[in-house]
Amino acid sequence: MRCIFCKINSIDTISIEHVIPESLGNKEHVLPKGAVCDKCNNYFATKIEKELLDFPYFKSLRHRNRIPSKKNRIPIEKAFILHQKGDWVDLIVDKEGISISIDNPIVIDLIKSKKVNQMIVPIIPEPEKRNLILSRFLAKTALEYLTLRLCECEGWNEEIVDKTELDPIRNFARFGIGSYWEYHQRRIYNEDARFIDSTSKHSEPYEILHEMDLLYTDNNILYFIVDIMGIEYAINLGESEVSSYIHWLTENNNKSPLYIVSENQIKKDEGTSGY
């Protein structure tokens, strides 16, 4: 067994690699031990995923949707109390509900006396569409998801590790080597959307935290597609370009590959459903 990123012997690996971080709701999509060595696992956790999860957008997303970290903590959200000078407070979510942490005694008195009864929670914009950390995260996730799809096949480890065509995205994800890797980003449904299983008469509405798939375009270019709470990201595993994906969207009425099944696609793999 060799690591799919650094290619060293990883037979003694003890860590488990999650394709999507646990802090984004993933409990199911994990790679076999050794697919990613302990050193690479720690690198991605501390240098890529932690930075991504610290983005204001993702912290706010996890707070609003009560998605806990692997330590079962939900990020704190900032809110603004309206009074003469104004003041920021912390919104804390736990199993008991939502509470407010206030340090300013003046604000506490104003709330107790009911002289202040308005609070503003800022709207955090979606991630910028050209972000290096997000690009490396998508590159890492793409290679891992491809591995996940192949890992039950005989010789999968050699197929992934020895495939030189994957070296550029591999080295970009792990070592930051090479040029910036382009990706495509767009919103395909609202964050608060709920879905119903059309095959069941008794389906309860549910939310989707994430879902992933692979897409082969007509000219045999392999893309990884992932949707995180309504934002779809697409990245090319072979080279840093997305023009062929944009062309594919145009040819398919801008419908997401996650919702279209055709002969040149692998069947959709749904991520963890909401709670």
Total helical elements = 7
Largest sheet descriptor: 5 strands, antiparallel
How large, in whole angstroms, is the Cα Rg? 21 Å
Helix content: 25-40%
Average pLDDT taken over every residue: 88
Low-confidence stretches: 261-275
Beta-strand residue percentage: 15-25%
Order of helices and strands: HHEEEHEHHHEEEEHE
N-C termini distance:
36 Å
Dominant shape = globular
Query: What is the number of independent domains?
Result: 2
User: For the largest beta sheet, what order do the strands appear in spatially?
Assistant: 5-8-7-6-9
Number of beta-strand segments: 9
Structural category is alpha+beta
List the helices and strands and how they pair.
Elements: H1 38-53, H2 56-64, E1 77-81, E2 87-94, E3 97-101, H3 105-112, E4 119-120, H4 132-150, H5 156-161, H6 167-175, E5 184-187, E6 210-216, E7 222-228, E8 231-236, H7 243-251, E9 269-270
Antiparallel strand pairs: 1-2, 1-4, 2-3, 5-8, 6-7, 6-9, 7-8
Structure description:
With 275 residues, the protein is an alpha+beta fold. The protein folds into 2 domains: 69-120; 128-270, no CATH class. The protein has helices spanning 38-53, 56-64, 105-112, 132-150, 156-161, 167-175, 243-251, and strands at 77-81, 87-94, 97-101, 119-120, 184-187, 210-216, 222-228, 231-236, 269-270. The strands form 2 sheets. Strands 5-8-7-6-9 form a 5-stranded antiparallel beta sheet, with helices on one face. The chain has a 4-stranded antiparallel beta sheet with strand order 3-2-1-4. The longest helix is centred in the middle third of the chain and has 19 residues, at 132-150. It is globular and about 70 Å long. Residues 261-275 have low confidence and may be disordered.
